Amino acid sequence: MKKGYDVIIIGGGIIGCSIAFELAKRGVTDILLVEKGFLTSGATGRCGAGIRQQWGSELNARIAMESTHIFENLEEYTGYSHSCGLHQGGYLLVAYTAKEWAQFQENLKVQHKLGIDSYAVDLKQAKEIVPYLNTEGMYGATFCQKDGHADPFHCTQAYAQGAKRMGVEFLTYTEVTGLRTASGRIAGVETTKGYFEAQTVINCANVRAPGLAAMVGEDIPIISERHQALVTEPVEPLMDCMVMSFHRSYYVQQTPHGSFVMGIGPQEEPSFNFKSSWQFLEKNCAVMCEVLPILRKLNVVRQWAGQYDLSPDRNPIIDEAKQARGFYSVCGFSGHGFMVAPRIAILMANHLTHQEDTMDICMFSQERYKTGKLLLEPAVV
Predict the structure, then answer these.
(1) 118 and 231 in one domain?
(2) Residue 377 falls inside a structural domain
(3) Residues linked to residue 191 through DSSP beta bridges, in sequence order
(4) Nearest one of 25, 168, 56, 173 to 118, comparing CA atoms
(5) What total number of domains does the chain contain?
(6) Out of 35, 74, 298, 321, which could bridge 218 as a Cys pair, Cβ 3.0 to 4.6 Å?
(7) What CA dihedral angle connects 69, 52, 62 and 370, to 10 degrees?
């Protein structure tokens, strides 16, 4: 293995692997991706892998829409020989308050402006989409058939294998232990398998990103929040779409092989706790059995926990370190990194190769927290 590269990417989730692919696609192939575990061993492998275009800000709706277009053809786009498991059964977003229902109407205007095929449904129509849904307390819902979910492992492998074919090197089970700088620029990365020089380092380490950034004197305002999920035994098809509530902070979907995957938002202090809990199991089952009473008959097979890298405004941070030029942090996706990774990777690759892009990467700088120009998004859990 060489001791120097043009670019080193830290983090082997879908964000890091997709950036590696997009850079290689633009001719930057002297890349080393370093991952402390195996690819997808962090947030990507623990996520629900949802893909939705129903956002409330034009920026997020556009990023999600363009990412969805890539997901729809990811196998061909990356030259991957397996299915990436995309299932576009739709998202049914339900409103439990008048204020939320009014916001959904505004969200639809944003989505329609971009050509996203979403629409409002009344409670009768909601039950036609999900027959077993308990609509008590709901005001209405919105639906987009093109929303859905994919396989996070295959999607990440699609990007990784495509990058490898173009010459990108991967170093797994390797931890970054330090960063070196020289004359105000990044100089290289210290790891458990040696030191590697690089002129550009991209920090895609999710909740570990602030710790890496601190090595070059950069303060990234991200907190780590545990989110948990569970999966049931497989049964015959009962629903095709994802049901999600922002107000009550839950989601539930049935996978193509019949299992139900579900989760609820946490109410706990920030931590690096990756262990699942019986308290989550108890609360989640109570909420889900109220929303979908038929679930009372199912057995839980397993549960797990992952981490959201929460930024102050729940939107990504893409920024170059002021004290170490060439060191970039791409993080703070707040639980939505999977669904926007394809477009974010293009944006980052275009920036590093000095190619034009219809989006301005500067809007994701953390300077917005100082100026007050936050990227506000009403459609988040």
Answers:
(1) yes
(2) no
(3) 176, 194
(4) 56
(5) 2
(6) 321
(7) -140
The boundaries of the domain holding residue 27 are: 4-47+153-222+313-371
Same domain, 236 and 263: yes
**Domain containing residue 346: CATH number:** 3.50.50.60
Query: Phi, psi at residue 327, to the nearest 5°?
Result: -100, 115
Which of 259, 287, 310 is a domain's end point? 310
Q: Which of 161-175, 253-267, 312-326 bottoms out in mean pLDDT, i.e. has the lowest?
A: 253-267
Give phi and psi for 78, each to the nearest 5: -105, -10
- 170-200 tens-digit pLDDT: 999 999 999 999 999 999 999 999 999 999 9
Question: Residue 98: in which H helix or E strand, if any?
Answer: helix 98-113
Angle of CA points 13, 15, 21, to nearest 5°: 100
> What is the tens place of the pLDDT at every residue in 191-224?
999 999 999 999 999 999 999 999 999 999 999 9
Do residue 143 and residue 231 come from a single domain? yes
The full DSSP string for 226-278 is EEEEEEE---S----SEEEETTTTEEEEE-TTS-EEEEE---S---------H
Going 193 to 195 to 197 to 198, the CA torsion angle's sign is positive
Q: How far is CA 232 from CA 85, 250, 295, in A?
A: 19, 16, 9
Closest CA to 179 of 212, 146, 151: 212
- CATH number of the domain to which 109 belongs: 3.30.9.10
Query: Where is the domain boundary, 310, 338, 363?
Result: 310
Residue that the structure tokens 């669904």 belong to: 339
- What b/e readout covers 39-56, taking b as 16+ CB neighbours within 10 angstroms? bbebbbbbbbbbbbbbbb
Q: Which distant-in-sequence residues (6+ apart) come within 8 Å of 282 by Cβ?
A: none
Residue 74 main-chain phi, psi, to 5 deg: -65, -35
Strand boundaries in 30-104, DSSP class E? 31-34, 50-51, 91-95
Count the residues in the chain: 381
Q: Evaluate whether residue 37 is within a structural domain.
A: yes
Q: Are 240 and 259 in contact (CB under 8 A)?
A: no
Judgement on whether residues 228 and 305 belong to the same structural domain of the protein: yes
Are 95 and 129 part of one and the same domain?
yes
